[in-house]
Specification:
With 241 residues, this protein is of the alpha/beta class. The protein has 9 helices and 9 strands. The termini are far apart. It is found in: Cytoplasm.
């Protein structure tokens, strides 16, 4: 894949850290990587945004940000309240395509979930993925409630004819509860797509060197890593009641 769109089942699910892990792993495999943040919200002009955080953790990657709005809201709402121009899906697709002409892999990180609106016309990250004919990687939380939001996201992708590349658990707890352990088997079933990784909770707090060294062990071979979904599931599986 040349362009990979990364979305979440919602906000605060670990999407930026997963994007950094994918970028670091691809870079370690010898691929040139660019990261495009479609719209950054809730960050002042002088503050580092998600793209900068990806670069801090992943290392030598090209970063681009199409728009920045000060309030931590959906991009369409944040743009309207700030009196600024919104970002449209075709602009995201055009920027990603240009980066793809110069890099082996372009990661397009959305804002929140798949259907968060970027403009007043209701344009979403899904529309950009369609324009790019790009697969979509979904970042999901580990615990209770994730099955519903993951299945809804997967169904929406399929209803639009988009390719769901797989699911990555954005923050696997050090002491997973019963729901998280059971979800390892249930997530690929409800999504109809494979688990492609599991990033440990707190991974974003690692030093950049430690993060880059560990990242390939969190992601499956399809994402250039060495993570084995079945071995992980067996290791973490709950005991029978």
């Amino acid at each position: 894949m040349t362009v990979l769109v990364i979305t979440g089942t919602g906000t605060e699910v670990g999407k930026t850290v997963v994007t950094a892990a994918v970028a670091a792993t691809a870079s370690a495999a010898g691929r040139s990587v660019a990261v495009l943040k479609a719209a950054q919200t809730g960050v002042r002009p002088d503050e580092p945004g998600d793209a900068a955080e990806v670069a801090r953790l992943a290392g030598a990657v090209t970063t681009a940000e199409l728009a920045r709005y000060p309030e931590p809201l959906a991009p369409a709402t944040a743009a309207r309240r700030a009196g600024r121009a919104p970002v449209h899906p075709h602009e995201i697709a055009e920027a990603a395509a240009k980066l793809a002409s110069e890099h082996d892999l372009v990661l397009v990180e959305g804002a929140g979930g798949l259907l968060v609106r970027f403009d007043a016309a209701g344009g979403t990250l899904a529309d950009s993925a369609r324009l790019l004919s790009a697969p979509v990687l979904v970042v999901a939380p580990a615990g209770l409630g994730t099955l519903n939001t993951t299945e809804l996201t997967a169904r929406e992708l399929r209803s639009r004819g988009l390719d769901l590349a797989g699911i990555v658990i954005g923050s696997w707890p050090a002491a997973p509860d019963l729901a998280a352990r059971c979800n390892l088997a249930d997530l690929p079933d409800v999504a109809g797509a494979p688990l492609l990784g599991s990033v440990p909770a707190g991974a974003g707090a690692l030093s950049p060197a430690a993060f880059r060294s560990a990242a390939p062990h969190w992601l499956a071979p399809r994402l250039d890593g060495t993570w084995d979904a079945e071995a992980f599931r067996v290791r973490e599986a709950p005991r029978a009641s």
